[in-house]
Design brief:
Blueprint: H1 5-20, H2 28-35, H3 39-51, E1 55-58, E2 64-67, H4 76-84, H5 100-103, H6 107-123, H7 126-132, H8 144-153, H9 169-178
Antiparallel strand pairs: 1-2
Helix pairs in contact: 1-4, 1-7, 3-4
Length: 179
């Protein structure tokens, strides 16, 4: 089992759906804008999530995706496994990067570690993740462009020299000449 960027994006997208899709589907274009992920990447990701029965799609104007089950019934492990299915080296992968002779001494350690991680991820529901988030209205800007424009609007504090300290090369030279 590997936690990849793909599975992390899938968890973020599902949590976003759970918090925003109250009564209406969420368009992939909106997710793309909020998290700066390409729509084509999201389409591939959501295809796997839909096949796993985690999301349902609505076509047409005002269409998008909603959760196919309740947020309490979807675990993070469900999302991670669904996002990696169909991907080369994904969830169905059993081979390790190490040969059997290289990894034989620690194979049990890594198997136990993977089992513990999956148990933990299975214990965390989407509803728990949503409850930990700030309300949608009070969230700070998400996109880089919004952060940059917010930083530009903030007034910079003037940087003044300390009292008695020359503030230019010329002032420094003049102060040295007086000594």
């Amino acid at each position: 089992m590997r936690l990849t960027t793909r599975s992390k994006f899938a968890v973020v997208a599902i949590v976003d759906l759970a918090s925003r899709s109250v009564g209406s589907p969420v368009a992939l274009s909106a997710l793309s804008e909020r998290y700066e992920i390409s729509v084509s990447y999201l389409e591939v990701l959501f295809s796997g999530l839909r096949q796993a029965g985690l999301v349902a799609s609505t076509r047409g104007p005002g269409g998008g995706y909603t959760l196919a089950r309740g947020a309490r019934d979807i675990s993070v492990a469900d999302i991670v496994l669904a996002s990696e299915v169909g991907k080369p080296g994904g969830a169905g992968r059993t081979a390790d990067a190490m040969s059997s002779s290289q990894g034989a001494m620690t194979a049990d350690l890594w198997a136990a570690f993977n089992h513990s991680v999956m148990e933990y991820l299975a214990s965390v529901s989407v509803a728990e993740l949503v409850s930990q988030q700030a309300p949608v209205e009070s969230r700070p800007p998400v996109t880089v462009m919004e952060k940059i424009s917010a930083a530009k609007r903030a007034k910079p504090q003037p940087q003044l020299p300390r009292e008695g300290v020359p503030n230019s090369v010329f002032a420094l030279g003049a102060s040295r000449a007086l000594e």
